[in-house]
Amino acid sequence: MPREMQLTEKLEILMSLAAEDREGPPETARPLPPRLRYAADAGALRPLNIRVLRGSGRPIKLLRILMTNACALNCHYCPMRRDRAMRRTLLKPEELVRIFLGALRRGWCEGLFITTGIPARPEKVTDDLIAVLEMLRVRHQFAGYIHVKLVPGAEQAQVERITALATRVSVNLEAACGDTLERVAPEKQLATTLVTLERARQVVVANRAEERAGRPRDGRQPGGVAGMTMQFVVGATPDSDRTIMGRVTSLYAGGGIHHAHFSAFRPIRDTPMEGAPAAPVLREHRLYQADWLVRTYGFAPNEVVYEDNGNLPLAVDPKAAWALAHPESFPVDVSSASYEHLIRVPGVGPRSARRIVDERRRSVIRGLSDLRQFGVVTNRAGGFLSLRGRRLQPVRWTQQLALWRPEDEVGARHEVYDFSPGTFR
Ligand code: SF4
Known about the structure:
By secondary structure, the chain is of the alpha/beta class. The protein has 14 helices and ten strands. It folds into two domains: 7-275, Aldolase class I (TIM Barrel), CATH 3.20.20; 280-411, no CATH class. The chain has helices at 7-18, 93-105, 122-139, 156-165, 178-184, 190-212, 241-253, 281-296, 318-325, 339-342, 350-362, 368-373, 378-381, 397-401; strands spanning 48-53, 60-66, 111-115, 146-149, 168-174, 228-234, 257-264, 332-333, 385-387, 390-391. The two termini are 36 Å apart. Iron/sulfur cluster (SF4) binds at residues 71, 73, 75, 78, 80-81, 117-118, 185.
């Protein structure tokens, strides 16, 4: 059996492709140019990595590339900031394309995620991103998944072109509020970022509408139809979870956005925020859960429960917090409740709620063991449920809470990341 190649070996081969225009095995490649000498360094800014994207469909293995870790801006929280001493690298568009096609040919990935620092004017950086996309889509006829992080301040025509060629585009908003953003990123303006987001959104919404009307998808010109994403650094600014969720839900309302990413702030060595406390990862997790409730469970934004300081409770997940604040809504009877009521029960997700509704048409639900078969987490749900008018578990809800850990999932996945906040989100 041939030995499975380690990721670091793969990356060395891929980086050697960056230096080589000629066809041939990597060992004949010329040495890397000085600007790429440190590109294979491990650590928080490792510029290449392979990761599996799990969406609603089949998982896709993505090659994620940081085009450059050089940046002309000086955001206080960011390891790539201008004033921080670190080794910088920059891939030219044709080098990035060679690396990706090399990985694709070897079957190491199926799609691409490109993000970048901003070492020059936004228009120049965006021109380079467009060059990458045009080479892949037009010259090499690549019709697979490409996600591109947009650069705030790019021109309208550039944003339209890049979104037309990408499967998904995303925008780093960083903070929910312009004033607080300027405190940690003095050269950034939230208004400029929002203009870029709106320009891309128009393209995405129009292309989605055309697909719904029957236009077949052209993988080489997908028009961002996978939906946009946006990213917030949580805890770098004093913005509360209520403020962040308010911004997120108002942006969702305009359409074209698939989901938000939340990155708990972590202090980075040799930055002005080195001494600032890290945000609890559990806070990031709670925001994902609250976002999930709004996007998937049908909760209205104003139903999300916050503490007096405007943050989500850390001790209980947002669905349990809502359930505890609304005792009048429980118990929910599994023999008659609608799907919409069932998914509001802690421990019942969309799949198990659907199973309950389907199964009770065919057979009689007898108790907790049947519900367990349908995927209900019965030690969480039991105290909130009844069956034909009889409570399924005679415990008080407050006692019920002791039966699960605060970090338990409510549908959303929690990711542990190796990168600086937001680099690859
Ligand atoms: S957050 Fe982005 S713009 Fe700001 S310093 Fe980092 S890479 Fe540059």
